[in-house]
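Dear support,

I submitted the protein below through the web form. The confirmation email said the job was done, but the results page showed an empty box. After a refresh the structure appeared. I'm attaching both so you can tell me whether what I see now is the final result or a partial one.
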Amino acid sequence: MGEKIRLPEVKYDTGYDVNRALHERRSVREYKNEALALKELAHLLWAAQGVTSLGGFRTAPSAGALYPLETYAVVGDVVTLEPGIYRYDPQSQTLTQTAEGDKRRELAAACLGQTWMAPAPVMIAFSAVYERTTERYGERGTRYVHMEVGHAGQNVAIEAVALGLGSVIVAAFDDEKVKEVLDLPEEEHPLYLIPVGHK
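What the results page shows now:
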């Protein structure tokens, strides 16, 4: 654990029309028993929080460009990746393993027993460090963080469509149990989970 894994280069011009992706987006809760390619995971994570300019700006807007979100991949079946939890670094487009082993069933159990989630080959998890935003914007910064995770989640959902994958947003969970499964630092709070897989 701790070694950085470089993700494949993201190709921005896939030829998939964004209007078509918006039209086709649906919540998908059943997934084929088929691994995700590492390049597919790279695209999903880049859509979530990828850097898009030399100034460090990202795919999702952030109040004051403070970027309170942290993004994790809970991996069960991704080609060339060992099962485990990986933290995404947008600046270097890398993953760092933070926990070993397949945690999908534990995470599904923490989501009020939504066992249908467990077969998804990967779950994208967003957490937030609220203080990054509230230090500047006060209490209203909490609202900005929640808006931002919505932007990032929709990006993942649209990217999934463009890749021929299915996804769904999950927010019904026990915060403390999810935090425990993800082994989040004290200052990080889970907000959003997105199972993704072949439909």
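Response: this is the final, complete result; the empty box was a page-load delay. The longest strand covers residues 189-198.
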